[in-house]
What we know:
This protein is α/β, with parallel strands linked by helices and 317 residues long.
Amino acid sequence: xxxxxxxxxxxxxxxxxxxxxxxxxxxxxxxxxxxxxxxxxxxxxxxxxxxxxxxxxxxxxxxxxxxxxxxxxxxxxxxxxxxxxxxxxxxxxxxxxxxxxxxxxxxxxxxxxxxxxxxxxxxxxxxxxxxxxxxxxxxxxxxxxxxxxxxxxxxxxxxxxxxxxxxxxxxxxxxxxxxxxxxxxxxxxxxxxxxxxxxxxxxxxxxxxxxxxxxxxxxxxxxxxxxxxxxxxxxxxxxxxxxxxxxxxxxxxxxxxxxxxxxxxxxxxxxxxxxxxxxxxxxxxxxxxxxxxxxxxxxxxxxxxxxxxxxxxxxxx
Length: 317
């Protein structure tokens, strides 16, 4: 029987992967965890959990909302060192109160100030990137037809700051159910070119959003490989890896095809559940056992699938 379209594309990636003659098995993909979904849990508990399940990188909640709110650099550096965990980057939070595409200049200024704090913080912790959506999460209705232009103008102001602090700005495309602007990798690249700054020239992908907005995840990763710096990962139900119908093998294969394992680039688990506005989770408290289960299942499954694929490569060669 003839293969379905997505199966043909999957098969093409498999063939390319298994035809690789050399692969650096000592440089595996960098698996990270985005901690803002842990809500108000003390960071020390989060770090302890990640280390227990062999997660050696963390994408920090960009929680420097003001001078008195958020992580304290000196304290956090010590905790990171104690648990031997490195910062991959920072997840920038964009809401209706602080967003690049807002029709209010006061809101856009608040967003600039917020990102200035977090860019400096990222540099202090030696993180690689800060990711963000140009529009507010949880606001799928557009203000008007000029959101793109306002977002570009606002982000240009931050471009030189990203360069100065040696932090990479990464635009994250988000599904239409959650935001009003920038839904695909194509949209993100259009914005990157319009901003025209070396400080903002990366894309932070998200598997869950890609399932909604792109034709084929592997194909898109191949096409935009020069821009990809982070890939948020959750299964098709936006829960733990291995709990849904996602073909994780194909994603791992295509990342090795673009030498993602050789770059300062990350696969970051972010299982948030399927709601249209997941931000409510970052200001709440949940059962730690739920988080333990998410991390254990996701990390174990990711490492297992990666290991099996690498063993097959070695066997074939």
